Structures are given as structure tokens and as C-alpha cells.
Amino acid sequence: MADRVAVIGGGVIGLEAARTLAEQEISVTLFEADELGGRASGRAAGLCYDAYADPRDARIAAESLTYFREQDLLTDCPYLWFAREDGETADAIETQARRMADHGRDVERLDGPAVGERFPGLVADDIETAAVAHNAGYIDPEAYVDHLADRVRTARVDVRTDVGATVTDAGAVRAGGSVREYDAVLVAAGAGTAAALPTRDLALGLYRTQALVAGPVDDDIPMYYDASTERYARPLEGGVLAGDGSEMYDGDPDTYDGTTDEQFLTTRLAGLGERLKTDVELDRSWSGLCTATPDRDPLLGHLHSEVYVATGMCGHGLMRSPALGRAIAEQILGGDPVEGFDPTRFDGTESASLPVGVTE
How far is it, in rounded angstroms, from Cα 252 to Cα 259? Predict the structure, then answer.
């Protein structure tokens, strides 16, 4: 059993894993090249739901929702997704909703008029088919990071921020000009995961996402995802947080500047004007990098020697982080891996494509 573990990456999954390990009397050192939650975790949209057609994914999401509620981090809010016209997308929503309900998810299907009646703050005249998940809500990513930071420090994790770290081929950790061996190493560094594993090839791609906050919004609105345009939004402090379709990124994650495009701001504000029954103005905006895999499932588990990895969340990392952080920590302690997430299922030469319906 591992007595000393290094965690590389201070996002929400790395923090949750470190906390879980430390509470089992493991000596944990956490390395973060920036500040805790300073990259993808702190820029997430914060949408959370258990509306997955796959029972495994639904179970992971439901476990995470339970944690958020127990810690008073979740604002309950229904999650609506819809298509604007008949066709493949509408058929997929109907199939998804049916499968989710069959697996015990609290999901119902709606048509356009029913959406308009249920959510009067939305323009629903163009909606053909929709589904709504009731076991859903949103969290404040910054508050969540602060919550986890308090827990890891209470658990006496040795937190080292502004310290980059990499894994040697032998499985040791190089950080701050020195090399140290640990019984196990977990790399959960998001877009920086590949750089932290320079001697290993991962089937991992990066994609760029953009978001904005606008307001005011006086009407109650659900979290929603327009599957026809890949636009999403959720309530936020009397306004709305919104984003849309993303693009693959081939640059260096360390030089990514986090700004948004003027075209994104123009089109997304126009989209909100079409969907909401109120006029909104831009408050602020940002962008970030997320990780993707060829099959849209995470790389979560044992990689080589005593090195483990947790990455490739395809935009669903924050909403599933309580369950996945605990799962990888338990695997390090000798538990079973999550079926289907084995990071060695690829040889590293495969290409990752942009996920459909990303929300972070």
C-alpha cells in the first residue's frame, strides 16, 4: 500500500483525490504550477446533472450531485436540452430521454409548447423536441475550489503552488530543481498533463472553450443546452452565464491567454437575445482549455509503474469530480478501477476530436 503519494495538478479532481488519500493517513504532496483551481476548474460553467444515457456515467454524476448537496454547494435548477427541428438531433434527444428514464433518471420529454409553459422566461416557439432533467443544478467553481482547498489543508496535504512538476521515466517526480521518489504519483493536470508526462504518449487532445456573463435576467430560467447550435446557458447572480461550440487547440497550453474572440461575443449575445425574453448586456468573458479523448471517456487509472492519470474529461470534469477524484484515490489504495476508463486502452497515436455538447 502506498504511504507517500504525489499529486500533480491542483484542479478539482486532483484536490479531491489528494483529500481522499490524506484522510486515509497517506502522506500527500500536491504540486500546482499555478494557483489552486487557476485554470480549467476555476473557469468551468458549473452545470451539474445526472442525465446520462450510460448507467455508469449516470451513477458517477449522481454520486457527485449527492456530494455537492451534502456540502451545500449546489443550487438546484432543472437542466433542459432541446432541438429546433425534426431530424437526427431531435431523434437523439428522444432516444436519450427514454434510455435515461429506463435507467432511473428523473427525466421527462417535452415539446415546444410545453417548454414555453414550463419555462416562461425562454422563447420556445422554435423548439421541436426537448427533455428536462430534474436532478440537476449548478455550482460556483471558485467556491468549490475554495471548499476543496480548505479540506486538503485540514487533511494536512503538503500543498505547493507555483511549483511545476514532471514525472520521470522511472516514475519519480522532478520539481523545484530536485527529484524525489514516491510510492505512487497521480497526474491530474488538465491541459498540462501531457507536459507532466514527457516520456509517455497519451491519446489526448486540447480544445478551446469560451464563455461570458451577461444580464440582467429577472425571469427564472433553467440551465439549457441548444443541441442544434451547441449553445448552453445557466442562471448566474441575476444574469446568465453562456457559452457555445468550441474548437480544437494545437498551441502550447502554458502560453494560452484566456481571452475571448469578438465574434464569439457578438454571436453569443445575439443568441441570448433570441432565446431570453429580456435584453442583456455583456458583463465579462473568458476562455479556457479542456481535454478530450478519442472515445469521449476519461483517461483515469494506472498508466505505468506506480504512475496514475486523471484527464480527458471532455468538458464534464467538474460536475463529476467528487466521484472521479475519490475513484482514482481508491484505485491508488488498491481498489478497483472504473470500467472503461483505463488510460492504456489507447497506444497514444490516436487523434482526439472535439466533443459534442461540451459544457466546460
Answer: 15
pLDDT digits (tens, 9 = 90+) for 67-105: 999 999 999 999 999 999 889 999 999 999 999 999 999
How many other C-beta atoms are found inside a 10 Å radius of the C-beta of residue 152?
A: 26
The CATH 3.50.50.60 portion of the chain extends over 4-42+141-204+294-345
Question: Which is nearest to 292 in space by CA: 183, 167, 166, 204?
Answer: 204
The CA-to-CA distance between both ends of the chain, in Å, stands at 35
Cα 91–chain centre separation: 26
The Cα-based distances of 172 to 45, 166, 247, 302, 353 in angstroms read: 35, 8, 34, 15, 31
Q: Are 47 and 233 in contact (CB under 8 A)?
A: no
Out of 3.40.50.720, 3.30.750.24, 3.30.9.10, 3.40.50.620, the CATH code matching 206-290 is 3.30.9.10
Q: Alpha helix (H) ranges present in the chain? A: 12-22, 55-70, 88-102, 112-118, 141-154, 193-196, 262-275, 317-332
Do 230 and 357 contact (CB within 8 A), yes or no? yes
CA distance 239 to 220: 10
pLDDT tens per residue across span 115-166: 999 999 999 999 999 999 999 999 999 999 999 999 999 999 999 999 999 9
Q: What pLDDT digit, counting tens, does each position of 216-266 carry?
A: 998 889 999 999 999 999 999 899 999 986 899 999 998 998 999 999 999
In CATH terms, 4-42+141-204+294-345 corresponds, of 3.40.50.1000, 3.30.1330.40, 2.130.10.10, 3.50.50.60, to 3.50.50.60
